[in-house]
Design brief:
mainly alpha
Length: 234
Amino acid sequence: MWRFFAGAPALGIILGKIYFDSWLAGGALTAVLLMLYPCFRRSEEEKAKRELLIQFRDLLYSLSASFSVGRNMKQALTESLDFWGNTYTGSDPIVTETKRMIREMEEANETDVKVLKDFGERSGLRDIRDFANVYESCKTTGGDMGRAIARATEVIGDRIEMDRELRSMMAAKLSEGRIVGTAPVVLVLAMRVFSPEYMEPVYSSPSGAIAALMSLGLSALAIVMTERINRVDF
């Protein structure tokens, strides 16, 4: 969060000086950029979900090993904290969620099914919700829990690998789009530094300000469209 609220004003002021040679314009652009906070927060949430899903896959590996030797869910969750060793720390979301589930079962006497379903709802990840439902069905019908966990691990692993491949394929296009979107800014900055007299009409006339605003708007539109086209829904 702090990166956004530190970067947005800095970027707004820089663009205001480059395109309009005005601190007031920089303030106005800062206000516009700050309005994009919901988009930034949504992007950060998506990154957090991807990270949590990878960590949840590792949790399933641990649960599978524990269930294979006859442990129940509470015991398996407890053992998973040792199973990870130095892989994750207390600040990682999967460790926080695992400790929370254990605490709810110990202190609030919640059932393992309920804590798993609550975890799925908090995470916002379909895979975790599906696993909680599968676990409930296996526990109710006496199904093979080990096979269910192994299958869930396989499905999640496939989704993670597919996401990684898609992002690798689109990385070059995404970089190209960002370069195209930022190139006009670099060009205007270069002209401002090396040929300030060439940029004088832009700063001293209404038509110049309109042209600068259109140029900045088209650059922003190019970046937004590139990000949207290359977006992978997870």
